Amino acid sequence: MEDLLNLRDLADPLDNNGVKPDKKTDEEWTKMNRKTIAQIRQWIDHSVFHHVAQEQSAYTLWEKLGSMYQAKTARNKTLLMRRLVNHKLRGGISVSEHTSQFQDLVNQLSTTGWVLKDEEQAILLLSSLPDSWETLVVTLSNSAPNGKVTMQMVTDALMNKEARRKEAGIEQSYAFVSETSRRGGGRNGGRSRGRGRGQSQNRGNSQVRGRSQERGMSCENKTWFEGYCNYCSNYGHRKRDCRKFLRE
């Protein structure tokens, strides 16, 4: 607003604290004062307009608005920080939606003059995760370089975690469909070859699948690590599994 008044040469009533300079006539000063008031009122919110509708001095109007908006800013800070602290990742909300809503609150808070540091944002985002994410929270906190977590670290870890959960869900769904299909085939075949043989084959297949799934889980647990490599500092594996370390 001040920039706009300066651009239109209407800032003198504010710069001079409402006192007319000697170089201006009473008529010039009154005209400028009215123009400044009109310009300011164009940008006043309707909720506060009636509080200053009768002001005849641009400087008095400006000071009154300043005190009102400072009080409003203090309330906004409190409300926004409360919303930010209470912002939690809930079921049915994706990580990308959650982080987007979180960043929107951070941006709103910054417009009030309260700018959170990157580490503070990262800690608040970690605190917004439910108990089921506790392992990730502890791992990130313990493996953070120099003991400081960053927003980049947290968002990357959250996106990777969600991607792995989705992949696991797809694999489980595929395995369920495949198993259901095989059971159906076993029942149909049992009518021609005998029910006992079909049941025996199904039990054998289940045991083989069980061992294969155990090996897959063991391999996944071995290669994936919810933390940072001590060699290359990348997220997701230990030093002993680091490709860069093994190549060198």
TrEMBL record:
Superkingdom of the organism of origin: Eukaryota
Pfam families, A to Z: Retrotran_gag_2
Ranges annotated as biased composition (Low complexity): 198-207
Region (Disordered): 174-215
PANTHER family recorded: COPIA-LIKE POLYPROTEIN_RETROTRANSPOSON, PTHR47481
Name the UniProt record assigns to this protein: CCHC-type domain-containing protein
Organism: Cuscuta epithymum
